[in-house]
């Protein structure tokens, strides 16, 4: 049954490391839409210490997570086992955006594997609550492989494509500020 943990210990790190995907949830302070995003590529999530995690944020279809973190910082990460050993793990915390041109980015980057094309930022989360649940109703699935579509797209995209993405990522779907047009991130690594 459900259990709360005081820190991200070795068994939790092992569970997190075995998951092929995770989910990110954020919401604006008032009104607006809740954002719930699946994330993949297993080398894009890292446990930095017992109360801090981070993931690499890639250019994609929107900027909801960044906008919501700028608004209020609230974020929840969920890992869900689809194997015979059922388990759901949620990390509740406060997140912040660390861009490739920020001073601490290189230190955070050192916790990840190969840098993917299309990197927009790192999302760093100070974890305040760690809790699991049984996951008994979650079906079994077998992982076939990672889907290479986004990475392939970013590798082929010319630099001008990122300028368009930055323009499109200036606001969330609810109009909250996303990427700062006066301080756009540098061209994505590998793009």
UniProtKB/TrEMBL annotation:
InterPro entries: Pyridox_Oxase_N, Split_barrel_FMN-bd. Pfam families: PNPOx_N. Residues 11-131 form the Pyridoxamine 5'-phosphate oxidase N-terminal domain. This is Pyridoxamine 5'-phosphate oxidase N-terminal domain-containing protein. It comes from Mycobacterium bourgelatii.
């Amino acid at each position: 049954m459900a259990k709360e943990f005081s820190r991200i210990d070795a068994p939790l790190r092992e569970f997190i490391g075995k998951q092929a995907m995770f989910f990110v949830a954020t919401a604006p302070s008032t009104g607006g839409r809740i954002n719930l995003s699946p994330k993949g590529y297993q080398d894009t999530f890292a446990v930095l210490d017992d109360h801090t995690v981070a993931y690499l944020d890639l250019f994609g279809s929107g900027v909801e997570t960044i906008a919501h973190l700028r608004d209020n910082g609230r974020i929840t990460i969920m890992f869900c086992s689809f194997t015979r050993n059922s388990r759901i793990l949620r990390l509740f915390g406060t997140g912040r955006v660390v861009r490739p041109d920020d001073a601490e980015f290189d230190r955070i980057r050192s916790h990840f594997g190969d840098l993917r094309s299309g990197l927009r930022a790192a999302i760093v989360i100070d974890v305040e609550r760690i809790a699991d649940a049984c996951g008994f109703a979650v079906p079994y699935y077998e992982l076939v492989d990672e889907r290479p579509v986004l990475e392939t797209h970013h590798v082929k995209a010319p630099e001008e494509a990122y300028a368009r993405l930055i323009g499109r990522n200036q606001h969330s779907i609810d109009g909250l500020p996303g990427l700062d047009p006066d301080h756009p991130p540098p061209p994505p690594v590998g793009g």
